[in-house]
Design goal:
By secondary structure, the chain is of the alpha/beta class. It is built from seven helices and ten strands. A six-stranded mixed sheet has the order 7-4-3-2-1-10. Strands 5-6 form a two-stranded antiparallel sheet.
């Protein structure tokens, strides 16, 4: 059994606390006893490379990811086998977003770090909806070797069930994420992933959420989801 959290935000997400640097959040996850985490900032993977470097130092499983804000403004977790794939996917998502400048006083800072600790400020607002529908994402993720699932389907804000009122029969995913409660609209046969959607240090779970994986890797996660 692997102790995991596959939905965590860093200080790159404007709604994320500035203390959630990629280095600190990995260290906190390690202290909490997690074996595997995924970093899933809104519409960008720019902090994944620094987080991956920190995870390697802590000998901790790490999966690069993105929480996509779809054209319907539904949140969807997308994860990838490597940094290059996650960053290339992120660039494709970023290219479809409106060129709205972030206003930190309103939305929050958007800070990303190089692995050596050099900080940068992302100027485009990352909370905007991209140009891809949630129905587009499974195929788009697969183009980069990744997989995806709708995020926090039990939540009113930006949850798929709240936005659409139903589970689309043509949504080609094999998993769904919940925060706390299993909605009755979730189809049978899906793998259920519980995650924290952490935005602050205190949101990170103690010991994580159990996943029946053989090892803390993307490959093991994909194999489990696709069974």
């Amino acid at each position: 059994m692997i102790r995991a959290d596959l939905h965590i935000h860093s200080c790159l997400s404007p709604c994320g606390d500035d203390e959630m640097t990629p280095f600190d959040l990995v260290g906190l996850a390690k202290l909490n006893g997690l074996d595997l985490i995924a970093l899933t900032d809104h519409n960008s993977a720019k902090n994944c490379r620094a987080a991956a470097a920190a995870a390697a130092e802590y000998e901790m499983g790490f999966i690069p990811g993105i929480e996509v804000n779809t054209s319907e403004d539904i949140h969807c977790v997308c994860v990838f086998p490597g940094l290059d794939e996650a960053e290339a996917f992120g660039e494709e998502i970023y290219a479809t977003m409106p060129p709205i400048k972030n206003e930190p006083a309103i939305f929050g800072n958007q800070i990303w770090y190089e692995p050596d600790g050099t900080p940068h400020e992302e100027e485009r607002l990352l909370l905007s909806a991209c140009g891809y529908s949630i129905l587009d994402l499974p195929e788009l993720c697969a183009k980069y070797g990744g997989i995806c699932w709708p995020a926090h389907v039990d939540r009113e804000t930006n949850g798929m069930l709240a936005a659409l009122g139903t589970w689309p029969p043509d949504l080609l995913v094999r998993a769904a994420e919940i925060r706390f409660i299993m909605p009755p609209e979730v189809p049978d046969g899906l793998h259920i992933i519980q995650s924290s959607d952490a935005h602050r240090p205190e949101d990170l779970p103690e010991e994580g959420y159990p996943l029946r994986l053989n090892e803390p890797t993307f490959e093991a996660l994909k194999a489990w989801i696709e069974t």
